[in-house]
Design brief:
The complex is a heterodimer of chains A (329) and B (259). In chain A, strands 7-8-9-4-10-11 form a 6-stranded mixed β-sheet, with helices on both faces. In chain A, strands 1, 2, 3, 5 and 6 form a 5-stranded antiparallel β-sheet that branches. In chain A, strands 13-14-12-15 form a 4-stranded antiparallel β-sheet, sandwiched between helices. Chain A is elongated. With 329 residues, chain A is an alpha/beta fold. Chain A is built from 12 helices and 15 strands. Chain B has 259 residues and is an all-alpha fold. Classes of the chains: A alpha/beta (329), B mainly alpha (259).
Chain lengths: 329, 259
């Protein structure tokens, strides 16, 4: 398998803030690659550099064999992107938006109509194609943007938070399109997300990114397997007391406090659970609820970074988005 | 070829958006009408001494008519800059910026589209003038058009350049009136900027105003033999043309900035 994307110490600084810190990733031809991380981790900044709309501070990357610094136009021709924020003209119709895109990317005139009909069909928007975008729902706009990203037959499709702000039903819908795409098109997909389920469900490989650095990268199954065992979550107000009490217990691989929960990674959940609850009672810890499950990517994230992905405040998102907006003109 | 098609696409988009905005088209009648009808007849009849300044045989309303055409081109052109900020706020600018066409095509496509919109406004004012009794024939109309084109190129570019440096709509609005009013007042649109009674500083300032040359060129063509041009027509058009080129170059550079 050949590498479609390869980054070499890719770095982006906004003043003193290092948004992306010597990033080295490689994406194989035909795979779905997910950049998973909290808001402000540097996912969008990375994608923006790979799409050549943001200057790199240092390092570089090859996209489809073209250098993002030296051959920006060639890179642009060979990629499609669905940005995190909407980027369609809401005063035009869906079809007009698609024709505009086809013309901007030099799709031969004779091929435009069949290609546009095809992508409209894929995202099930044929009926609404001649309506002005303003009348579309958020999910429909998103679908149109995905359709648009495919018109010029890109070799790589970048999806920046493809289902952010969408309701669960629409999210499932978009996941289905992405899976369909992977089957029907010979295309590499790079997506960023802070939704664990999304990365888990869609991607062949996941890179967990935090503070601009890749923490770990592997297949979702492999990542979960590294935790090796079960995850016990105990809800209590005395989180500190409980984690101290069980600190020296045999068979415990790790303890993290997340909000009101103590998350305990253990080898054999069913065996250890009664003993942990026992110990809690002996130490006068008031246990509200207990659950036991197999680890998810969320737990992988917690395991490697020591905190929950959702614990990030929304203010950070605003800060980074503000920087991004200023940066991309 | 791809470049031309991309440029055409961006042009078409601006024009489509404009033509679908009925409020903007209707409102474009109002301001010039107010200037011509109220300001023009009020000042013209009220201040008879003013006629000493004007070329002989020219009514005040006739005199300011080319100025109001120029003003319409100026105000609409500057207003078009807002589209850059809108596109950025609503994200569409990213779709354009990530497309594989050159920055100069992006700038020219947008600029030509906005120019077309401004020209449509200009033609509306010309028709308004005919309705108000200002007379010029078809041949004059055909001479006015290319002059209007030349004027809008530079002015639209100025709007786009300023907008590309602005963070939000509000600050653009403020800057816009800072640019609009001085250019308008110092252009000779409403009163002659030459003559023994005109203060020296005002004469000097008007020399640095590209719109002075544009308005005077329009006036020369519209008033015909009655006009008293500041400079020969070819010279004025050359100045406007030079201004256009400079602004297009700066505009392309401004659109080329990436962080």
């Amino acid at each position: 398998m050949s590498k479609t994307i390869e980054t070499f110490d890719l770095t982006k600084k906004f003043g003193d803030l290092v948004a992306v810190d010597r990033l080295n990733i490689s994406v194989e031809q035909g795979e779905v690659f997910a950049l998973l991380g909290p808001n402000g981790a540097g996912k969008t900044t990375t994608i923006s550099m790979l799409c050549t709309i943001l200057k790199v501070t240092s390092g570089t990357a090859k996209v489809n064999g073209f250098d993002i610094v030296k051959n920006a136009t060639q890179v642009r021709k060979s990629i499609g992107i669905v940005f995190q924020d909407p980027s369609i003209d809401d005063r035009l119709t869906g079809r007009e938006n698609l024709y505009m895109h086809a013309n901007l990317y030099g799709v031969p005139t004779s091929e435009q109509k069949p290609r546009i009909e095809k992508v409209l069909k894929l995202v099930e928007l044929e009926d609404r194609a001649d309506d002005i975008l303003r009348t579309y729902s958020g999910g429909m706009r998103r679908r149109l943007e995905i359709a648009r990203g495919l018109i010029h037959y890109p070799k790589i499709l970048f999806l920046d938070e493809p289902t952010i702000g969408l309701d669960p039903q629409t999210r499932e819908h978009i996941w289905a399109y992405i899976q369909e795409l992977k089957k029907s098109h010979d295309i590499t997909i790079v997506l960023t997300t802070h939704y664990m389920e999304e990365a888990d469900k869609l991607s062949d490989r996941v890179a967990i990114i935090d503070y601009g650095k890749i923490v770990v990268s592997d297949t979702p199954a492999q990542l979960k397997q590294t935790l090796e065992g079960d995850l016990i979550t105990i809800k209590t107000k005395d989180t500190e007391k409980l984690s101290a009490a069980i600190a020296n217990m045999m068979g415990i691989r790790g303890t993290h406090i997340v909000n009101d929960n103590v998350e305990i990674t253990v080898r054999e959940g069913k065996m250890l659970l009664p003993r942990i609850v026992d110990l809690a009672a002996k130490n006068n810890v008031d246990v509200e609820s207990v659950s036991i499950r197999e680890p998810s990517l969320e737990d992988v994230f917690i395991h490697y970074t020591g905190r929950a992905i959702r614990a990030e405040g929304s203010s950070e998102l605003r800060g980074m988005s503000a920087i991004r907006r200023r940066a991309i003109r | 070829m791809t470049e031309i098609r991309g440029l055409y696409t961006l042009w078409l988009r601006e024009v489509k958006r404009y033509l679908r905005d009925r409020v903007r088209i209707v409102s474009s009648f109002v301001q010039p009408l107010l200037w011509l009808l109220i300001f023009g007849s009020g000042i013209g009849s009220g201040l008879s001494a003013l006629h000493n300044f004007l070329p002989p045989g020219v009514e005040y309303q006739q005199y300011i008519f080319p100025g109001i055409v120029g003003q319409t081109l100026l105000f609409t052109s500057m207003f078009m800059g807002i589209s850059v900020i809108w596109d950025r706020e609503f994200g569409f600018l990213k779709e354009i910026m990530v497309a594989p066409i050159s920055r100069i095509s992006i700038f020219l496509g947008k600029m030509l589209g906005d120019c077309t919109d401004a020209l449509i406004q200009g033609v509306i004012v010309l028709i308004l003038g005919l309705l108000l009794g200002i007379r010029f024939d078809v041949f004059v109309f055909l001479e006015i058009l290319p002059i209007m084109v030349l004027i809008t190129f530079g002015l639209v570019s100025v709007g786009l350049i300023i907008a590309s440096f602005m963070e939000n709509l509000e600050s653009y609005g403020v800057i816009q009136s800072f640019v609009n009013l001085p250019l308008f007042f110092l252009s000779g649109a409403l009163f002659p900027v030459r003559g023994s009674t005109v203060p020296n500083w005002l004469q000097a300032a008007s020399n640095f105003n590209p719109l002075t040359y544009g308005v005077d060129a329009l006036r020369t063509v519209i008033l015909g033999s009655a006009a008293q041009p500041l400079y020969p027509l070819y010279y004025e058009l050359l100045v406007v043309f030079g201004f256009d080129i400079a602004m297009i170059v700066i505009g392309t550079l401004a659109f080329n900035r990436r962080k």
